[in-house]
Write a structure and sequence with these properties.
Blueprint (H helix, E strand, L loop, with lengths): L4 H33 L1 E3 L5 E4 L3 H7 L4 H30 L6 H8 L1 H4 L2 H11 L6 H8 L13 H29 L3 H9 L4 H29 L3 H6 L11 H10 L4 H32 L1
Antiparallel strand pairs: 1-2
Length: 294
């Protein structure tokens, strides 16, 4: 019996609300940003005529552009890379049976569940030179004789920003990997034990290949989230001094709302969007090719 017209269109009817919301809140704003990037925009936000790539040329020619792009690269690489490695190790530990495992799983989720603004503010207080907890603890333990200025240079401040980013991202990776670990059939490990496989043999030949889909999802999402992360850097330094601790997202925000350079700011947002699409595309293609080869 052939399906009726109603049965054929029923799935699309159910998807229609999601498609409409996607168009209103995602696709439409993206189109507006692209339009502004190629248009003349006054400081008052009045949109003029088409100016081609002028806004992009102005954005790339800004004095802080090179430093901001370097910061963005190291921000994404360090936060995503280290949080993935540490999160994977923590997931392996939490997947083992031990007393207090449920409590440990609850504790590890706290940094991720807490507001990023709160996290950044707390770490700002911890590394304060005059009365920060870190200096007080080290002084009381006798590890240091006098307080250390943990914000002695913009490089050090940027490292602290990266650390906070890693700290709050670890739980997300850990639970993504943990979900993958729990889906692995335990009989595979029992068979490997019978064959005399070592821990490293099981890790590289069973665990990692089978949790690769979870790792792929968490890595791609992390690249997007971390690249677009705003609260940590803005709360801790606001890009000071002179945009030297800014990433692309915080810089274009300052450019738009503080300096009122709306044209270059929208051009930077388009540049960021294209970079994310390229990175995500390359990563997914590489993963799919590797899986096909295997």
């Amino acid at each position: 019996m052939k399906p009726t017209l109603g049965k054929k269109i029923e799935p699309y009817v159910w998807l229609l609300p999601s498609i409409v919301l996607m168009a209103i809140f995602v696709i439409f704003p993206i189109c507006i940003v692209f339009k502004l990037a190629f248009s003349e925009v006054t400081k008052a936000g009045i949109v003029g005529g088409f100016v081609g790539f002028r806004n992009f040329k102005e954005a790339i020619g800004l004095p802080a552009f090179k430093q901001v792009m370097i910061n963005t690269f190291w921000w994404v690489i360090s936060v995503v890379g280290l949080s993935t490695i540490i999160g994977f190790i923590i997931a392996l530990v939490l997947n083992q049976k031990f007393k207090g495992r449920k409590i440990a799983r609850s504790i590890i989720v706290f940094p991720w569940a807490t507001s990023l603004v709160v996290q950044a503010s707390v770490w700002n207080y911890i590394i304060k030179y005059e009365y920060g907890n870190l200096n007080n603890i080290l002084l009381n333990l006798g590890i240091i004789k006098e307080a250390i200025n943990w914000r002695s240079s913009f490089q050090v401040e940027f490292v602290w920003e990266c650390w906070v980013g890693i700290f709050v991202t670890i739980p997300f990776v850990a639970f993504c990997v943990l979900s993958g670990l729990q889906s692995i059939d335990t009989s595979l490990y029992k068979a490997a034990d019978i064959d005399g496989a070592s821990f490293w043999d099981k890790l590289f030949h069973i665990t990692i290949p089978l949790v690769k889909p979870s790792l792929t999802v968490s890595t791609v999402l992390n690249i997007i989230y971390v690249f677009n992360s705003f609260p940590i850097i803005f709360t801790m330094t606001k890009g000071a001094p002179a945009n030297k601790t800014d990433t692309l997202i915080t810089y274009l925000y300052m450019l738009n709302f503080y300096d009122r350079q709306k044209g270059p700011a929208t051009a930077l947002s388009v540049i960021g969007f294209v970079i994310l699409c390229i990175c995500a595309g390359i990563y997914m293609i590489a993963v799919m090719r590797k899986e096909d080869a295997e």
